[in-house]
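Input record (one chain):
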Amino acid sequence: MKGDMADIDAFLEKAVSIFRSILSDNLTGIYLHGSLAMGCFNPQKSDIDLILVVKNKLSKEELQLMTRHILLLDHDLTGSNGIELSIILESYAKEFAYPTPFEYHYSESHRERYQSEPGYLCGGFEDPDLAAHLTVIYYRGRTLWGVPIPELFKPVESIHYIQSILGDISEASKGIIDLPVYYSLNLCRVLLYLREGEVSSKQEGGEWGLRVLPSKYHAILRACLDDYMGQGNLSERDESRFIEFADCMQAEIKKAAKGSG
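The corresponding structure, as predicted from the sequence alone:
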């Protein structure tokens, strides 16, 4: 796959057709969230984020069939981070529960096990991250097929969205050395939400940070944004500056979270 938007749209059409064929009348809808839904998708680095909503629980055979087809679809996304997909019951789209139970999950971190362990399935428990994903769907998502978003989903209470995004950056001071772009931009979008209530992408969070954060952090944020958009890389970086940035942002986030509570 070359990665231009025509290729991506063709990929989504193919995925929708496959999922509809497998799930048939049990499928309520297919929904896009993440960077592709919010207009900042980088085909070399981003993943394609999907939530499938079903009426009833799926059989083991249906889930294994889903896995086989997702692995084939994922193979078509050479150069990106592939697919991240969760399946939830319609009842939890209509009446949110935190943390949210899910029937099935596939992502890059599970790919190897799905490939190497016949019968492996990730599902049947709860995922606090779904509060963030469902919030993005409600405010910024796109219906690929099925019941329109406003007719199916209700807003996730802000307390649960905040719990979810705070959990995502809880290890930022340790993790920022290995994942500087991920944590730097996520820290910005968490603070943006806590201060202004805006559900944003990582790119939008970083751009906001450039406007409002102290100028001594602008070089870090510009480098991260350039890397995120495929216009540079962070192979050479001052690790101490990133740790300082993470510690500062964690302090500001803690202060803002108290204010929002």
